[in-house]
Design goal:
The protein is an alpha/beta fold and 316 residues long. It is built from eleven helices and seven strands. Strands 3-2-1-4-6-5-7 form a seven-stranded mixed beta sheet, with helices on both faces.
């Protein structure tokens, strides 16, 4: 136990035969359960976990009959923790990229009931840019910005870090069946937590790379897919949080901003392009109207973001 709280670590695994031993061996003694979720590995991951479970009664092995994605593995672990009445559930990947020395810093704000969910942030340290592969660092930065807008947690960064801790209240209230099943899971979960008004905090963690891990993430496909996911979840959050559950006028600001943006892009933009192709001078009145529409769109959207930021300040 940790400060009289029952702690379970959820370890999603897929083909981690080279890494899973180190994850298990370095798990702190105060962890009560090590819930390993094998997502239909094709290597010896399950055999290795089973060999450790014979001498370590803390290890729980749950296997998927088909490959369902890392989000689905985390869902399985969270549901297990919820059903067993676990006080705090932590997620640590099976590839060894999460430093167990950072675990107390993640647990403390949740155990002390300061927040409901804490997540690692590898970008706090000055070593992040040096350690994280540049392409992944760039992709992470884009998705972090989009996640701020979509989730309403404007103080959160490094949205793709899956090193997290969540309390029992959140485990019981979130509908895990609706959580995204693959690499966009951390982003989607933040949106779900915001709708339910849970408090979230970033915690500095050490970025761990070059230890033999292999990534299945392909940024060319992952970034557009998660960006689309975030757009859908942003619209869902606006509806659920600011229309269905409560009302906030920022909805009107977003609507006016989108309307004027649409007018600028599709009407004036096309007209300007037509004049440019024909080599004609763009009429001054149209130019003024186009600038007015663009400025209106920008201001309405910026004010909507500001209102959203103010509405979620108490969730830090």
């Amino acid at each position: 136990m940790y400060h009289d709280k029952i702690i379970a670590v959820v370890v999603p695994c897929y083909n981690e035969e080279t890494q899973i031993s180190q994850v298990i061996k370095t798990m702190p003694d105060y962890i009560d359960f090590i819930v390993t979720i094998d997502d239909h590995s094709t290597d010896k991951t399950v055999d290795i976990i089973e060999s450790y479970s014979k001498t370590n009664e803390k290890i729980i092995l749950i296997t998927h009959q088909s490959n369902r994605g890392v989000g689905a593995s985390i869902e399985t672990g969270y549901v297990w923790a919820r059903d067993k009445g676990i006080d705090v559930a932590v997620v640590m990947a099976g590839d060894g990229q999460m430093d167990p020395n950072d675990l107390p810093n993640l647990l403390d704000p949740v155990v002390d009931e300061e927040v409901d969910y804490s997540k690692g942030n590898r970008l706090f340290t000055g070593e992040a840019f040096k350690k994280i592969p540049k392409v992944r660092y760039f992709g992470n930065s884009i998705l972090s910005l989009l996640t701020k807008i979509a989730s309403g947690y404007w103080h959160i960064a490094d949205s793709q870090c899956g090193y997290t801790a969540i309390n029992r209240k959140a485990l019981e209230m979130v509908n895990w069946n609706n959580m995204y099943k693959r690499y966009g899971q951390p982003n989607h979960l933040l949106v779900m937590l915001n709708i339910l008004n849970f408090r979230v905090r970033d915690v500095p963690v050490n970025p761990v790379y070059g230890i033999g891990e292999s990534s299945g993430i392909k940024l060319r496909s992952v970034v557009p897919r998660i960006s689309y996911l975030l757009l859908k979840n942003f619209l869902w959050r606006m509806k659920e949080k600011y229309i269905v559950r409560d009302f906030h006028p920022l909805i009107f600001f977003y609507l006016f901003g989108i309307f004027f943006g649409f007018v600028t892009a599709l009407l004036f933009g096309r007209l300007f392009f037509f004049y440019w192709i024909k080599g004609l001078d763009f009429p001054p009145l149209n130019a003024f109207a186009m600038m007015f529409s663009f400025m209106s769109s920008s201001l309405f959207i910026l004010f909507a973001m500001w209102f959203d930021m103010e509405a979620n300040k108490h969730l830090r």
